[in-house]
Design a protein that fits this description.
Bound molecules: 1,4-dihydronicotinamide adenine dinucleotide, ligand LTNE7NMQ
EC number: 1.1.1.3
Largest sheet: 7 strands, mixed
Keywords: Amino-acid biosynthesis, Methionine biosynthesis, NADP, Oxidoreductase, Threonine biosynthesis
Pfam families: Homoserine_dh, NAD_binding_3
CATH class of the largest domain: Alpha Beta
Distance between the termini: 36 Å
Number of domains: 2
Family: Belongs to the homoserine dehydrogenase family.
Radius of gyration: 21 Å
Protein name: Homoserine dehydrogenase
CATH architecture of the largest domain: 3-Layer(aba) Sandwich
Length: 386
């Protein structure tokens, strides 16, 4: 049983119980019941009957196949049971059967303004709708990077829609799985600073892999372990190729004031061509194609006392233009970016006030529970701020 499903078995009570006042609650539609979506449901379930739980009313939960909805409010645990992603409760049999999933249902269930869509998918179809929902006055809270981390055009549409309607876009979970990275960049600029540069570890799964890889165990075995722990993208090649880090770099860069396109980021992929060409279904069996090249890179670094880390960098040049790159680097063992444990992300930010000594933000950068917490922090913030 994975982490998110376990949370349904023994939910933690995270806040003080209070009497229900459903009229104050903001309607929420959750898209995605995978690793992150299940953890969102578990966290909402643990909030049932508490002050935090009163602020969000779950009315729709969907995955790519099926959806359940109830305008009067869904019990998160029951919704998970009905969708087959958690143990089924005794009285679930009396609930209406799930219906086929359709993104068109969101308008009807949330109404036109004030509700929140929580995007816990990795779906291009869902990301393509972010700007449209915002333009209707529906808030969007997302873990998916395809909204802000792809074309500049889509990023501008999202920003314009927020500007026009006042709807908010909660993106904390897109970089650093909820760490205060985007917020810090925005607050520095709101206080008059210009961002000069940033450098850091932006992938939780790659951090975990290179924190654990010792050249002895096959790298592919560790990739499977990271996937099973819920750290990788649905297709781990999105992490190993640097694409996920490219998207995060693009999101951070834009938040830092640099309107770059994805192709402006130089990417050094770890995925050999024969692995890149396979269908998603064939990837697992072919992961050992990573083993020899990674062992060679590890051995080269080890001989010099260096550590391998997958690093993202954005620098500004004298003409004010930015240059960004992501890839594997062999760092001296005492380099600040070589420190860290588990899935730690670590990002150094240089700005006017932090011109020589950077601001450094570090903490777990992947995993269902931290990501779900980041999503729900944003939902509470954009819904009805208190
Ligand atoms: N796993 C992690 O540590 C983190 C993940 N993220 C992001 O969270 C998102 C979800 O990741 P996981 O939960 O690991 O993926 P997953 O593959 O476990 O789950 C994805 C879910 O989205 C659903 N889905 C796909 N298309 C849909 C549609 N059109 N309508 C409704 N549901 C749809 C799928 O059925 C599935 O339930 C990804 O964008 C990922 O980049 C962000 C930060 C950390
Ligand atoms: N796959 C991602 C999950 C969070 O965005 C990562 O490894 O960082």
């Amino acid at each position: 049983m994975n982490v998110a499903a376990q949370a349904f078995v023994s939910p933690r009570v995270l806040a003080r119980p209070v009497a229900a006042t459903a009229s104050e609650a903001t309607r929420v539609a959750l898209l995605g019941t995978g690793t992150v979506g299940r953890a969102v449901l578990a966290r909402l379930d643990a909030w049932s009957g508490t002050a935090l739980g009163e602020r969000l009313q779950l009315v729709h939960v969907a995955n790519s196949r099926v959806a359940v909805r109830d305008a009067a409010g869904l019990c998160p645990r029951q919704a998970a049971g009905l969708l087959g992603v958690a143990p089924v409760a005794v009285d679930d049999a009396r609930r209406p059967a799930p219906e086929p999933s359709s993104l068109d249902a969101i308008d009807a269930v949330l109404g036109t303004t004030g509700g929140i869509v929580i995007d816990a998918t990795a779906s291009e179809d869902v990301a393509a709708r972010h700007a449209g929902w915002l333009a209707q006055g529906v808030h969007v809270v997302t873990a998916c990077k395809l909204g802000q981390g792809t074309s500049l055009r889509r990023w501008r549409e999202i920003r314009a829609a927020c500007h026009d309607t006042g709807a908010q876009y909660g993106d904390s979970a897109t970089v650093g799985a909820g760490l205060p990275l985007l917020r810090s960049l925005r607050e520095l600029q709101a206080g008059g600073d210009r961002i000069h540069a940033f450098a850091g570890i932006l992938s939780g799964s790659l951090a975990w892999l290179f924190n654990h890889y010792d050249g002895m165990r096959p790298f592919s075995a560790l990739v499977r372990q990271a996937r099973d722990a819920g750290y990788t993208e649905p297709d781990p090649r999105d992490d190993l190729s640097g694409e996920d880090v490219r998207r995060k770099t693009v999101i951070l860069a834009r938040a830092a004031g640099f309107e770059i396109e994805p192709h402006d980021v130089e990417v050094d992929s770890l995925v050999p061509r024969e692995l890149a060409l396979l269908s998603k279904a064939a990837v697992d069996a072919a992961l050992p194609a990573l083993d020899v090249p990674l062992r060679q890179r590890f051995a080269g670094a080890y001989k010099k006392g260096e550590k391998l880390r997958f690093v993202a960098r954005l620098e500004t040049r004298e003409d004010g233009r930015s240059h960004a790159r992501v890839g594997l680097e062999a760092l001296p063992a005492d380099h600040p970016l070589a420190a860290g444990a588990g899935t730690d992300n670590k990002v150094a930010i240089w700005s006017d006030r932090y011109a020589t000594q950077p601001l450094v933000i570090q903490g777990p950068g992947a995993g269902a529970e931290v990501t779900a917490a980041g999503l729900l922090d944003d939902a509470l913030r954009v819904g009805r701020p208190r």
